[in-house]
Amino acid sequence: MVADRPAGRGSGWSLRIPAGIGLAFILLPLVALLLRTDWAGLTTHLSAPVVGQSLRLSAVTTSVTMVLVWLLGTPLAWLLARSDSRLTAWARALVTVPLVLPPVVGGVALLLAWGRRGVLGGPLESWFGIGVPFTTVAVVMAELFVALPFYVVSVEGAMRGLDRRYDQVAATLGAGPVRTFLTVAVPMVLPGIAAGSALAWARALGEFGATITFAGSFPGRTQTAPLGVYAALEQDPQAAIALSVVMLTVSVLVLGALRSRWLR
Amino acid sequence: MNGAGNRRRRHPRRAGIPRVADRRASSPLRTLAPALTLAALPLGACAAGQDSAGQPAEALTLTVLAAASLTDVLEPIADGFEGDHPGVDVELSFAASSTVVQQVNEGAGADVVALAGESSLEPLADEHRHGDVAIFATNQLEIAVPVDNPGAVESLDDLAQDGLTVVACAEQVPCGQAAATLLEEQDITVQIASYEPDVRATLTKVELGEADAGLVYRTDVAAAADRVRGVAIPEERNVVNHYPAVAVSEQELARSFVDHLLSDTSQRTLTDAGFGAAPTDP
Question: Is the model's pLDDT at A10 over the cut of 70?
């Protein structure tokens, strides 16, 4: 994983030691996870109900989340990339807030907005009888809240790098803003969209804090894979480890998909 | 609070350790505890709990990992212990009973564990048991409802109503086991909306008004008296949990702390908080 470049002058042991400690710190827990895995019984552990149930729910919720991320995030990224107003600068900054917000705080914020006594959830509950918390919808909302900023930030970066003359040519050929967006902007930043999607999806898959706070934990309804790991860790540790290995594998595959960006 | 990352120091005499003033169990840290414990293993990181290698010059620290339902009551009890043992500094850390046992099994340095149910003690490895197990209190379930009681819950049987949002503890936690046993014995079918990681998380969902009712302990309702209402469950229908404590290090002080839980003063503190007294059988 570490590129073996000839060491230039000054990259002596004084740099290598802390670098090695840093790398070991990251790798050791992952190695420990693999060491403590009961490989012989892995299939048995993977057949524990919590594993299948939570992976299925995660697959469904993250898929729905990704569709929403594309539908909402791509136009948002485009507008942020192409508008020069001061308002846009503010919007761009605000979009990134959930990136740095502790997930559990995001969960509390979602609860205060969409909960039964929330700013929006209160009217929903009293007028339509719709309760959001403790539902699969709440899981998707929690995942969307944390994943959307990742996507918008990376796609917006790619779109801002587009030469504006393409927009202008499309306009002179009679394309409106929507058509320009669909036929020029999106196809040209597909690599950025792919990378942003992978990041956003991995983030949605790993979402824990906002989910348990806002959606609770109920097998098959709101207990996603990370919540499943947490619940199983104390009842069936080997199932929790098996589930963790699945998620680790998935993460590595996502990293592989992003290799062009990170592992060059 | 949890053992891995959330130790509250009541005497911040030693430099370099941030004081955590937050007394409520915080879920991200609780969440991380098992992971951090696992991660710390290969690095051989072991927290508090000094061995018997001579008399330490500075204050001796006694680490007590306890069930979430003991959050409010263990504080004055620890203060009493420090009063009786000058130079001893008791560190308290709270999590789900199942998490506490797991932390100790995974090598988290602790001296005493105090749990909310005898069955949660079973997974504790023999090598960590030093001295006898003391049952120092009992507890019973109660239904917590928001102050305005939107679900109009007045009895245990009301929990079976359709359209009611009821939360309970996860089944690996003593309060979750007790709730499952209670509903089974009373033959009541309840649609549970969420299985929360510990009793205080369950209580919080009710406090916020997100749930119409939550199955928690009597003592939790008492501790949050101004924020939730309690709906009592008749004694003859209720489930009784026994709270065990045991020393998990070789420190003499650890055993003293277990004995201290049985002292008259501690027992008074516990009964004042709504716990049942330690059973007096031989």
Answer: no
Residues pairing with B242 in the sheet = B138
- Cβ within 8 Å of residue A140, ≥6 positions away: A61, A64, A65, A68
With CA atoms as reference, report the closest residue to A37 among A248, A245, A235: A245
Nearest-CB residue to B210 (from A102, A133, A231): A133
Of the candidates B238, B218, B240, the one whose C-alpha atom is nearest the C-alpha of residue B229 is B218
Hey, of A28, A126, A234, which one would you mutate to test binding to chain B, going by the most B CBs within 10 A of its CB? A234
Cα dihedral across residues B30, B32, B36, B38: positive or negative: positive
Interface of B with A (CB under 8 A): 26-28, 31, 34, 38-39, 41-43, 96, 98-99, 101-102, 165, 167, 170-172, 192-197, 205, 208-211
Name the pTM for this structure.
Answer: 0.78
Distance in Å, alpha carbon of B101 to nearest chain A alpha carbon: 9
pLDDT at B178 over 60: yes
HSE-up (13 A, CA, CB side) for residue B42: 15
Contacts of A233 in chain B (CB under 8 A): 34, 102
Closest-CA residue of B relative to A134 is B193
Task: Work out whether strand B228-231 and strand B130-146 pair parallel, antiparallel, or are unpaired.
Answer: antiparallel
Question: Helices in chain B by DSSP H: which ranges?
Answer: 27-40, 74-84, 97-105, 174-185, 199-207, 218-223, 252-261, 264-272
What is the Cα–Cα distance from A255 to A257, expressed in whole angstroms? 5
- As a whole number of angstroms, the distance between CA A65 and CA A59 comes to 10
3-state secondary structure of B179: helix
A106 shares contact with chain B (CB less than 8 Å): no
CA nearest to B251, candidates B57, B54, B41: B54
**pLDDT of A59:** 94
pLDDT digits (tens, 9 = 90+) for B133-164: 999 999 999 999 999 999 999 999 999 999 89
Q: Going by DSSP bridges, is the β-strand pair B112-114/B240-247 parallel, antiparallel, or unpaired? A: antiparallel
Residue in A with minimal Cα distance to B96 = A234
For B193, the closest of A32, A218, A230 (CB atoms) is A218
